[in-house]
Write a structure and sequence with these properties.
32% of the residues lie in helices and 25% in strands. The protein is built from ten helices and 17 strands. It has helices at residues 12-27, 36-48, 59-62, 125-144, 163-167, 221-230, 272-290, 317-328, 343-349, 373-392, and strands at residues 53-55, 69-73, 90-96, 108-111, 114-117, 149-155, 177-183, 189-194, 196-205, 235-238, 241-250, 260-269, 298-307, 310-311, 334-337, 353-358, 371-372. A hairpin with a 2-residue loop joins β10 and β11. The longest helix has 20 residues, at 125-144. The protein is elongated, with a radius of gyration of 24 Å.
């Protein structure tokens, strides 16, 4: 007898709410640092359900106009307390409120079953698809209950080196572990490896001179920066390591030998020591270029570890919960290594076990960003299944 595919638990009214909420959220501009309007929409929705939302004071540290939001929904609603601390009986689900900068206003349109921006810019599915799913899940749990308590965390500044999650106090959480939905790849993928990330800034200082009359009196900072870049390995260095020059700026005019030039670079590596070695080589190349005879510039270099990488044990309870939830929804779990960071990196760094799951979005950070209506529904199915599996895999209560 042929096995039947799992039936979606998402009902028609929930499906309409999910898609309508997603489109509404996308229209709210919330680039990193300006998440307040989106946060207020989330707060209003949860409060309408009778769910209290607490905002922390991470805004200034994260460079945002608001803090992270944390909400709690008791599994035995409405009789339970929002301050329940039943160890092992609570699950965290997390999404971020911010997007990368917008190239154009967002006007979501549904084309051939998928949401896209009618204008030439990002859609904001990263990460508003996940926000819509968590709000739909809150409505579902509020109406029908859940096998475990639910904590919902909405962070700010994820797109700027996980600023909000790094400023969040994970000791506030009741849950033993949690999940974020923040990887733009097919649903079913589980991120078990994520890189360490470094930001490197280099400011070259030379001497200005008239480019047509006294060029030999000048010392070009732009030339030094160019020599440094040309001496580096860029792009994908190996399967787990990448280097990129993100921005270059300098000079004051076409006819002036450039006195100043600034580079901003990043280096990522799954292996922490590999990341540090690559950064050390970049720093050497920057100094060498500044000291070349035809450059003879000073250079100021700053190196910042934005976030640390992780490797999840494949047999750990959170990974097993994810696998079982995905199978229950008809997806084949696949362990992947990602070159991207997520709030999972910041929470894991605080000792809170977190798994990043693929959310079915496509081409994030690009004008062609897209997510299908089916993927939104499947994400909600997976989120509900995570609650079920977390209850099954919860530790036995202390006697």
């Amino acid at each position: 007898m042929t096995a039947q595919a799992p039936v979606s638990r998402v009902k028609e009214l929930e499906r309409r709410y999910l898609n309508g909420t997603f489109a509404e959220l996308c229209r709210i501009e919330s680039p990193s640092g300006h998440e307040r309007a989106c946060a207020e929409r989330v707060i209003a929705e949860l409060r309408a359900l009778g769910v209290k939302v607490h905002e922390d004071d991470a805004g200034p540290a994260a460079g945002s106009d608001c803090g992270n939001l944390l909400a709690f929904i008791s599994s035995d609603w409405p009789g339970g307390s929002e301050d329940s601390t039943r160890h092992g009986r609570s699950l965290l689900l997390c999404a971020h409120l911010d997007t990368v900068p917008l190239q154009a206003p967002v006007e979501p349109v549904l084309l051939k079953g998928g949401w896209e921006n009618a204008n030439d810019g990002i859609l904001g599915a990263d990460n508003k698809a996940a926000i819509a799913v968590l709000l739909a899940l809150a409505r579902h749990v509020r109406r029908e209950g859940a096998p475990v308590d639910v904590e919902l965390l909405f962070t700010v500044g994820e797109e700027v080196a996980l600023a909000g999650a790094r400023a969040f106090d994970a000791s506030r959480l009741n849950s033993d572990f949690g999940f974020v939905f923040d990887h733009a790849s097919p649903i079913g993928e589980i991120v078990i490896d994520s890189p360490t990330h470094f930001r490197i800034e280099a400011s070259f200082h030379g001497a200005a001179a008239h480019a047509g009359i006294r060029p030999e009196d000048g010392r070009s900072a732009i030339l030094a920066a160019a020599r440094a870049i040309s001496s580096m390995q860029l792009g994908r260095l190996d399967a787990g390591t990448t280097v990129n020059v993100g921005t270059i700026s300098g000079g004051t005019g076409m006819n002036v030998v450039a006195e100043n030039c600034k580079l901003v670079l990043e280096a990522r590596a799954i292996d922490d020591q590999r990341a540090e070695d690559v950064v050390a080589e970049i720093v050497d190349r920057l100094h060498e270029a500044a000291n070349l005879p035809d450059c003879d510039c000073d250079v100021d270099i700053s190196v910042q570890r934005s976030f640390s990488g992780y490797k999840l044990p494949v047999g750990s309870r959170p990974v097993r919960v994810a696998e079982q939830a995905l199978r229950a929804c008809g997806h084949q779990p696949a362990h992947i290594s990602s070159g991207g960071g997520s709030d999972a990196n910041a929470l894991i760094a605080q000792g809170f076990a977190t798994v990043n799951l693929a959310n079915g979005t496509e081409r994030n950070h690009e004008p062609g960003e897209r997510v299908s209506a089916l993927a939104l529904e499947e994400m909600l199915d997976v989120a509900l299944a995570l609650l079920d599996e977390a209850a099954i895999h919860a530790p036995a209560p202390a006697l």
